[in-house]
Here is the input.
Amino acid sequence: MLGKTGGTGHWRRRFFRGGVAAAFVAAVTALGMTPALAVHDTGAFELDGNATNGAAPGDDWDNVCHQVLGSDCSTTNNTTGASAVDWVAEPNTNASIFTGGGSKDPQDVSNWLWKDGAGGLPDKDNLLHSFAARYMTNAGDVLFFGSDRLDNSGDAQQGFWFFQNSITLNGTTSGSFNGVHKAGDVLVVSDFSNGGTTSTITVYAWDPTCTKTTGSTVGTCGDANLRIKGTSASANCATAAANDQFCGIVNSSTITMPWSFTDKSGTPNNQALNGEFYEGGVNLTALGLGGRCFASVSAETRSSTSTTAVLKDFILGKFGECQTAVHTTPSAAGVSIGTGSVQVTDTATVGVNGVSTWSGSLAFSLCGPLASAAGCATGGTAIGSLNISNATTQPITSPAATVTSAGTYCWRANFTPSAESLANGVQPGSDGSTTECFTVTPVTPQLATDAGDGPVVLGNPISDTATLTGTANQPGTPVINPTTAGAPAGGTITFTAYGPNNCTTVAFTSSPVTVSGDGTYGPVSFTPTATGVYHWVATYSGNPPNTLATSHNTACDDTNEDVEVIGVNSSMTSAQSFIPNDSATVSAPQGGALAGSVSFALYESADCSGTAIYTQTVAVSGTSPRTVSTTNTTVSTTAANVSWLVGYDSTNPAQFDIAPKCFEKTALAIDNNGTVTSP
Here is the structure.
């Protein structure tokens, strides 16, 4: 165990030494509420005149020793349910004695002085070990304490101080005390006589309103700063009444101590003679002193039970300083933002050592989103506060917080003691460490596309349509517990067509199509200039921080996104055609020169029936005979049989007309060989 020495805040290790224990016992007084069980019979601790756990229910000092040292004290078991423990060994028999006229119980600790070197200290007043433990029992809040001493020669007067403030030593071999009294500090003063059969005990509380001695009964001031809370001249635990509020006992015969112990007589095998070991208990609740935290405990020997007695040896130890431990755990290490918001909670455990009864408020805050998991030491958004106490079921779940942005968040839980608990020494506690951080992850939406049916004939447009699902709304305002909901996911979708017949050549890229949450976007289209297979690819830009980017068919392996552009087959049917022409030779040897005209009429028949498809009148003049011809260059025919109706109209009176005659016929064999098509 560590004891204070060597300057402010430094501890000196105290080593095991043999010696004789001082005897001390606390007795019952009828003050305040009557506990359900006697202090010596709570079942939490054995008050039976020895330091070893036996058949009686409860812990003993061997359990306390093992819990403090973490090593063997004739047992391998710690205490069961002690809220505070102390076990200290003096480094040597000459260590830490009181010195100076101000080292008296009515004086504040800051007036006390100490030194090493017994220098005439009676062996019966030389303490070797001091120990204490605290329990919340059915009888109330109970302190158990004890000591052993170097020699059992003569009666012994002892005191046990329980300080709410931390008390330490200044100096290395001598000096003063650090710390001061706080109202409600407890002093137990005891006297054992007649071999330990008779005990006198008085319990005091530090009370600055006591300026002088006003009496010797319960409730009066026994001295400056010391108010009497209980007193009795008969409080041996072996003979104590059923409802005793305090009692004590010494070993009535030789016992074996569970730790290294050698008394002045050199008794072997760690044995303590009658009266060298003492233990006692005080029911704080019964005396109206429960619920406060004690940071330090000091066992002291004294010249008498008087409040002004000269203080002699002491052992100072740390006890159950009311340190509040808050440990929190987020509901999940990682959670998705979902559709744009997610509810998260924190769980906390709050423990206060050194006191069994406490209360206060537990406030939860949430920091984020953060650049990294750096914790939430300060600031953040207040999520809610809960009133809790030692009776609250743990772990304690925070109110739910609504988070609307992906990112890193960290919880913090702050415990604030109630006014009563704070007055009793309970300290605030907080946990906003990096272990309180968690991540809200963005979503990756789904993008499905539809390129429509094909094939498409070259010269016509092809198109693509995209359906976006699984997006998350944008962050609300504010991000945590928003009052304004976030808008649907934004961003754009771009459509790209690759081909023909490859996934590297960009044939078309659309303008970005604006997105507003889940929905169908498009269609977009373009008209290819070459035949082949085209591959559509759609890309969504994403909308950080809540919605990630995504794309569809980047590998061009979705056949539903392929569109084939084709050309059409051509066909040809041939039909031979002819442009017929005719000529006529007019002869009239007599009658002078020829004058007049020849008329031609072409029919698609063998007998000049039907309607003429071509007619032409050609003038004739000049010496006989004279040949004239048609000049048809535009009228063609596919008919196999054609005929000409030819006549001569003379304008020379000496020459007669020739009436039109159908005496020219053409018969052809036409073979057009049907229709041919493209491959």
Summary: The chain has four domains: 2-318, 324-441, 448-568, 583-667. Helices lie at 61-69, 419-423.
